[in-house]
Amino acid sequence: MSVFTPQQQSAITTSGNVVVVAGAGAGKTSTLVERCVACLLDDRAPASLEEILMVTFGEPAATELRKRIRQRLADEAKRQSCNQRLEQQLALLDTAHISTLHSFCFQLVRQHFHELELDPQITVLDERQTRPMELAVLEGMLSKHYAGDGPLDRAVQSLIREQGRGSDDSIRRFVLKLHRFTQTLANPAAWMANQADRFNQTEPHQWRRWLTEGFVEWRQLWLPAVKSFEQTPNVAVCLDALAAAPAKPGLNQIRKALEAIRDADQHDWQGKKTVVRGAIKEFFRDAAFLHSLVSAEDGKDPIEEDWRWVRQPMLTLLELGQEFTAEFTRAKRELGGVDFSDLEQLALRVLRDPHTGRPTRTAETWQQKLRYVFVDEYQDINAAQDAILALLSRGEKPGNRFLVGDAKQSIYRFRLADPRIFRDYEQRWRGASGGGQRVALSDNFRSREALLEFINPLFRTLMRPAVGGVAYDPEAELRFGRPDSRAHLGFKAADEAGDNPAAPRVEFHLLPKPVVWATADEEENGNELDDLDAVEAEARLVAHRLRQMHDEKHRVWDQGREEFRPVEWRDMVVLMRSVQSRAERFAKEFGAAGVPLLAARTGFYSALEVMDLLNLLKLLDNPLQDVPLLAVLRSPLVGLSVAELA
Fold it and tell me: What pLDDT is recorded for position 531?
């Protein structure tokens, strides 16, 4: 992209800390590369690649950044043939700090292995190696507590007996979740200590504060909806009760308001209960739940009772979590290995003084060395990673961080990424005195205009701060970028196309239940596929729709040739939340429809044909097993339908 929008130009030239909110298809990679090249070519104080850190989410992204920077520098070198400095930067590119954060941390840890008391030949263990270790460590740890008779042993036994109802499965899951969560924090030990201090308190002070805050938020959320029925006497009483509670109510005031709402709900609705109450029934359900938390029946405080009930189990769980982390770390070190979480925590030990929390001499050395720190996909970062990058950077005056991300595109919360960190930077750096600048990139250069006009109203409805923590306001809406040079993808081109399949559009297919799908031959033979499950029905619909588009030579825009051409199989992609247990069935239906499919397989033993044979072997070993029997009867080995099995 040779011509940049005003927004992109602002992101490229703004000095100090910059947070870039880059919408989908907004040219963020081009902007990131151009910002880096601008730093290298600065007339007044040009930087060197040795003074730049560029962090990406994955190795392919790092490779792409390096490739684009190389191309830009090579283009500049051709224009400035006598500029030896450009040749020097091209030579430095292969050793530049352009990598994932974990790669950088691994380099840092290996450089300081002696002070971390690590094997100098330390290796990184992946999940296939660490998952069995986790289970083995947990098994050994619990076995020790089962056999012991100390205070913690008895507490663990009580935890499993009372909270796990005699099974330790849920306790194992909680311990693993606790360990994985704490390893994403900037200071796991401090968090653990804080939680232990909280549960050692005899009174649930924090819970009561949360209840008060929750009531205030609940009141603000429901007031607009409830006010629309204020002409109904019962609802008017509820509104008066909510208004009587002050902005920061105490528990007694909350209790009084909720009791008034309960009494109003139990009063005669004068024939309007179905219409009015039915529309806001969740309001009364929430009020009843909140009332159960503040009603002091028989002089007992429900919150205080719950607090006494959970305190000791939570303290035991915290001790188990700390013990597991220590034992798991020891097991990894015995193998001379670390996992990805270890890399982050060990890097923090190198960069931060454990007593003062301030940067170490190593961190200060890096701060002096690095003039610019670039980070991509910041919405998928966690607290530990954010702390590492902050320790490598120069703070907020004048600041040298360039953070690119978009909270709307955060997809790694299942890996404990925290998009709130990126949103906090947005808020802090939005103003001139906030330590940085915020720049929004909203021009989309990837999609057709009609697609954007579908997406914007949809996201405007779905994305709200109260629901997902993200506001899809006018600034966040995607605009059709470069309309003059991309007129062929705009509304006018679509209107002129008429019924032409090249016209941009969105299709929504709803599969009703029960599902009946059959090919023409099957319909002629009267063989209705009434036993297709939801996944198979979806796969068949998608396969036949793609087959239809291919046969009709649906036209797509070829960016390389800069013209429309008939669609090819390689232009099509099927996205789903998970391919596990679905890829095989999609492959089967696509094969039947004559649609080539390249699908990620979940493993040899997960293939349907292999599972069928395994179930047959299980059945031969023990013919009394019901599940393998049903699987074999349903498989192509026998071929019974659901109706026949019933």
Answer: 45
Identify the domain containing residue 459 by its residue range.
446-500
Q: Are residues 465 and 555 in the same domain?
A: no
Q: What is the DSSP letter of 56?
A: E
Do residues 330 and 348 share a domain? no
Show the tokens assigned to 371.
């003039």
Q: Is the pTM of this model over 0.90?
A: no
Residue type, 226: V
Last residue of a domain, one of 441, 466, 481: 441
Read off the DSSP letter of residue 271: T
384 and 530 fall within a common domain: no
Beta partners for 555?
A: 566
Q: Which residues pair with 21 in a beta bridge?
A: 405, 440
pLDDT for res 214: 94
Picking from 329, 330, 328, 337, the residue whose alpha carbon sits closest to that of residue 137 is 328
Q: 282 and 217: one domain?
A: yes
User: Which stretches of 406-548 are assigned E, i.e. beta strand?
Assistant: 437-441, 443-444, 479-480
Which one, of 37, 86, 38, 32, lies nearest residue 64 by Cα? 32
In a domain, 195, yes or no: no
Res 502: pLDDT: 45
Q: Where are the beta strands (DSSP E) in 311-386?
A: 337-338, 372-375
165 in a domain, yes or no? yes
Number of domains, the chain: 6
Q: Long-range contacts of range 135-142, CB-CB < 8 Å, 24 or more positions apart?
A: 136/331, 137/324, 137/327, 137/328, 137/331, 138/172, 138/175, 138/176, 138/324, 140/327, 141/320, 141/323, 141/324, 141/327, 142/168, 142/171, 142/172
CA angle 20, 443, 556 (to 5 degrees): 130
- On whether both 179 and 322 belong to a single domain, the answer is yes
Please check whether residues 257 and 349 belong to one and the same domain.
no
Residue 601: per-residue pLDDT: 60
In a domain, 4, yes or no: no
Partners of 438 in the β-ladder: 19
Q: What is the mean pLDDT of each successive set of 10 residues along the chain, which is 646 residues long?
A: 84 93 92 95 92 94 95 91 88 94 96 93 91 95 95 95 92 96 96 96 94 94 92 94 94 94 92 88 95 84 92 96 97 94 97 94 96 95 96 86 93 87 90 80 91 90 77 89 88 58 72 57 44 80 95 88 91 84 84 88 66 88 86 84 73
My answer on whether 169 and 212 are in the same domain is no
Peptide bond into 398 cis (omega under 30): yes
Same domain, residue pair 469 and 533: no
How many secondary structure helices (H) and strands (E) does the chain include?
28, 12
**Residue 198 included in any domain:** no
Q: What is the DSSP letter of 14?
A: -
Rounded Cα–Cα distance for residues 42 and 34 (Å): 12
Return phi, psi of residue 356, to 5°: -100, -20
